[in-house]
Amino acid sequence: MRWLIPRVPAFKASHPDIDLQLIAGGGPVELGRGTDLAIRRNDFDIPSRYQTYHLFDEEVGPVCRSDRVDTFFHEGALKADAPLLHTRTRPDAWNDWFGATSREAVAGEGQFFEHFYFSLQAAVAGLGVAIGLRRQVTDDLNAGLLAAPLGFAEDGSHYSLLAAEEISDESPKQKVLHWLTGLA
To answer: In terms of C-beta distances under 8 Å and separation of at least 24 residues, what long-range contacts does 72-78 make, across chains too?
Structure first.
């Protein structure tokens, strides 16, 4: 939602006839019961009856408040005492990043938050270093609120648009798919 919602006004301006309703959720979804499309990460088995349209590969990296980079990083690495901000929705995010980048894990003190949004807000507040999903933090990076001194790495997961049936040309669903792939 951090990535998608700021981009919705442009879609609505281009497609005022399409009623775009956003519902937060993750994991399995039942399409066709009031939900036409779903954006999901491939962290569960997607039913074979659904059509999947690849949107983008997940890219993750450590982010912190811009003016705290020297506090938490030194010579292209996390400092051993950097407070790591974790999330209960993806508790292995740090380990996945360390593995994807072949960097040595650090065990700095840290805090757990219920969701990525909270851990990112804690990073903006200067509480430590969070794992940021590139698309979720793009606006904060561009605004100078956050910095990603070590960049981002693909973690092996990806996001797709799910549909109950094949999306037909020139349909409202096709317009949504085209918009999403253009953003990715």
So the answer is: 72/128, 72/129, 73/149, 73/150, 76/149, 76/150, 77/103, 77/150, 78/103, 78/106, 78/108, 78/129, 78/150
Interacting residues of 42 by C-beta distance below 8 A, sequence separation 6+? 157, 158, 159, 160
Query: Domains in the chain, start-ordered, CATH in brackets?
Result: 5-57+157-183 (3.40.190.10), 58-156 (3.40.190.10)
- Per residue in 13-39, pLDDT tens? 999 999 888 777 777 778 887 788 888
pTM for this entry = 0.83
Q: Which residues of 49-73 are buried (b: 16+ CB within 10 A; e: fewer)?
A: ebbebebbebbbbbbbbbebbebbb
